[in-house]
Amino acid sequence: MASHSDTLVVFFGATAGANGGKLGSDERELILLVWQIVDLHENKVGQLQRTLVQPDSADLSEQCKEETELTAEELCKAEPLESVLQQFHQSVSAELKSLGRSSYTLCVDGPLLIRQVLHPEASKKNLVLPECFYTFVDLKKEFHKCCPNAGPVNDLTLTSMLDYVCIPAAVEQEAGLREVKNTVLLILHLLVEPYNHKFSTFETVNYKFESGACSKTEAVDSETVIRARGLPWQSSDQDIARFFKGLNIAKGGVALCLNAQGRRNGEALVRFINSEHRDMALDRHKHHMGNRYIEVYKATGEEFLKIAGGTSNEVAQFLSKENQVIIRMRGLPFTASPQDVLGFLGPESPVTDGMEGLLFVKYPDGRPTGDAFVLFACEEYAQNALKKHKQILGKRYIELFRSTAAEVQQVLNRYMSTPLISTLPPPPPMVSMPVLATPPFITTGSTRDCIRLRGLPYIAAIEDILEFMGEHTIDIRPHGVHMVFNQQGRPSGDAFIQMKSADRAFMVAQKCHKKMMKDRYVEVFQCSTEEMSFVLMGGTLNRSGLSPPPCKLPCLSPPTYAAFSATPAMLPAEAALYQPPLLATPRTPQAPAHNPAPALAYYSPQLYMNMNMSYTTYYPSPPVSPSTVSYFAAPPGSVAAAVAAQQAPSILPPQPGALVRMQGLPYNAGVKDILSFFQGYQYAPEDYSSLVGVSDQGRSLIQPKEWLCL
After folding, report:
1. b/e burial code for range 237-250 (CB count within 10 A of at least 16 → b)
2. Is the separation of the CB atoms in 29 and 18 below 8 Å?
3. Alphabetically, which GO biological process terms does the record hold (predicted)?
4. CA separation for the pair 484, 537 (Å, rounded)
5. pLDDT category, 667, cuts 50, 70, 90?
6. What share of the chain is helix, strand, coil (3-state, %, to 5)?
7. Which residues contact 245 (CB under 8 A, 6 or more apart)?
8. What's the rounded mean pLDDT across residues 53-71?
């Protein structure tokens, strides 16, 4: 606007719900607008205007009825918000013209009317607000500049400010007129001696959200960050900015959170320009985005940097092009080139700067992941690109989604930090304890010495289950905790635990049933090993009884173990191996026929810690049970031979060694490819045909001559 000091328009509004300090906190609509012009040069005032606004719902709160004395019948006869705003603009413009003024600025008693009511409601109703509603004067802040001893800005009210400068309040019966008249009296008093105040500080509302990159070295104030939860999975940063319309979000201040599979989890971290805007954002807790209500909580700067921060120069250069629309492509063929992607998008969706507007996501060794990010100069080009969602490139369909700068950082950070081959942490000191010489297979039976946990939080780990069971943890059998995963490898919310006796299982089921774990109650039932085996092998257990498992890979493997020859109490770290799970129905192995002396097992003190291998950040760990690594001292010719005979009698030779399971092999991978992968390790070259095999589930087995820590 040409000049902000010519004229002020004192602006007041009331909603159908909470007013005053809680204005806008309940998403209720505007029902009343009152305004009056103040000429700052001539110290003159214009005509006092008051108009009602028709809401979509005429349900008035008791506070509103008491303060405004309005009725639903009066509001039904009023004009809708769009018409009222047009009347306001025309009325003010005509009056300014008669005064010989050309510009004006709104003056409000606090920012809530503009930021928390007018802009959010206009956004929901798809109304385009005039330019005058993007700049305003906050009377409380201006008064605090004149009278700093009057108290903190947040504690100031219109009545307290009038009392401080000894001005009697106006007596007016109608709501709205009273507040506007008192505001005008206060402004006129500040313009003259002894204050001679000049209104020079103007609040602004951002027209749109600006995307941008964030560095991990950047300082982020924790008092400016919130966490929004319950977002629709397809929502973009612009959708989130629209939800917080009226509040100023920092540049690049929206970070959509991803889950372990690299997909959006319905949460986002939002960074505002200051703590005042953050506090107003917290007042939008459980406001709605479409038909969903959004939860808003406090967050920290560290959390924001963990999601949105990045250090890659390649990403920084890619995101340096500001005000671009970012689209994420997923499922690209690994052989796809930039020219293939540009050809797929077509001339109707030109990419910004051609190939420089493409960013392929790769593993640390340079292998493509099938993901890419694309920049478009405008919304129209992005919309044209999104129309190609699930169209075919090569022999694969491609998914396209809206994305954000923070998501680019997050995806790149996750992939680039993924190790090529996962490694196990160094094992803690081993302690010896006597156990049975036979490994812990699941033996079926009707004895009800097991419990089933149902309704576990999906993020629950073994440690959470142990904490849930409390003092009953000591009654769990070694390797007796079994998490159940679905066919996608994700937690199903179920777990089975083998107890030392049926009495202990009954006691746990009685004491822990419907006990809380992470804000959810967990059901605990007593069951038998037969029922447990049915579920672990892919069957179902419900009120109708047992349903046999399908003939496919079990959702959860039986317990695994590593067989060793007799060793000292301290085993080398190189012996810490994961063995492949049994693919056949669990059975009890033959007892060793020699040396009746009790065998010793070497356990880690963390007996039930979850130690599943995580191959990449994006794919769930192989569903392996138990979740511990333990060492069994057993003669190589007994247990090891029995296990080898059960697992793959036609593939594995009956000799001591270690098994390495390989998942995710290319379908066209051959023996040479697998042996090349293990280059540097010792294996028997004369036994290529017998050392490497592929199971009916597509897994390859290899028998090296030495222990491999992969």
Report:
1. bbbbbbbbbbbbbb
2. no
3. cranial skeletal system development; mRNA processing; RNA splicing
4. 10
5. low
6. 30, 25, 45
7. 119, 120, 122, 123
8. 90
- The full DSSP string for 441-505 is -----S---EEEEES--TT--HHHHHHHHGGGGGGEEEEEEEEEE-TTS-EEEEEEEEESSHHHH
Which of these, 131, 124, 121, lies nearest to 89 by C-alpha position?
131
Give residues with Cβ within 8 angstroms of 493, minimum separation 6: 454, 455, 456, 457, 458, 484
Among 409, 443, 236, which residue's Cα sits nearest to residue 316? 409
166-174 contacts at long range (C-beta below 8 A, 24 or more positions apart): 174/50, 174/69
Mean pLDDT on 699-709: 42
Question: Which pLDDT tens digit goes with each residue over 445-461?
Answer: 788 999 999 999 988 88
> Bridge-partner residues for 292, per DSSP?
289
Strand 7-15 and strand 692-694: the pairing is unpaired
Mapping DSSP onto H, E and C, the string for 516-549 reads EECCEEEEEEEECHHHHHHHHCCCEEECCEEECC
| Nearest-10 crossing angle of helices 405-416, 301-308 | 80
State how beta strands 540-542 and 368-376 pair.
Answer: unpaired
* Amino acid letter, 692: V
DSSP symbol at 575: G
Has residue 109 got a pLDDT over 60? yes
Report the candidate in 243, 250, 304, 245 with the shortest Cα–Cα distance to residue 272: 250
- d(CA 584, CA 581) in angstroms, rounded, equals 9
Helix (H, G, I), strand (E, B) or coil at 371: strand
The answer to whether the bond into 232 is cis (omega within 30° of 0) is no
State the Cα–Cα distance between residues 665 and 642, nearest whole angstrom: 28
What is the per-residue pLDDT for 679? 64
Tokens coding 58: 């005429």
What DSSP assignment string belongs to 89-143? HHHHHHHHHHHT----EEEESSSHIIIIIIHHHHHHTT----GGGGEEEEHHHHH
Closest CA to 206 of 258, 247, 150, 172: 247
Q: How many residues does the structure list for the chain?
A: 710
Q: Which is nearest to 367 in space by CA: 316, 416, 422, 319?
A: 416
Token representation of residue 558 = 């039986």
Give me the residue label for tokens 């560095």: 215
Element (DSSP H or E) covering residue 623: none
Model pTM score: 0.57
Any alpha helices (H) in 567-699, and if so which ranges? 639-647, 671-677, 688-691
For residue 507, pLDDT over 80 is answered with: yes
Q: Would strands 309-310 and 214-215 be described as parallel, antiparallel, or unpaired?
A: parallel
Instruction: Write out the H or E segment, with its range, that includes residue 683.
Output: none
Q: How far apart, in whole angstroms, are the C-alpha atoms of residue 14 and residue 27?
A: 12
Task: Mean pLDDT check: name the lowest of 204-208, 401-405, 424-428, 490-494.
Answer: 424-428
Please report where in the chains the tokens 């396209």 appear, as a residue. 400
Quick: pLDDT tens for 585-623: 344 444 444 444 443 333 333 333 333 333 333 333 333
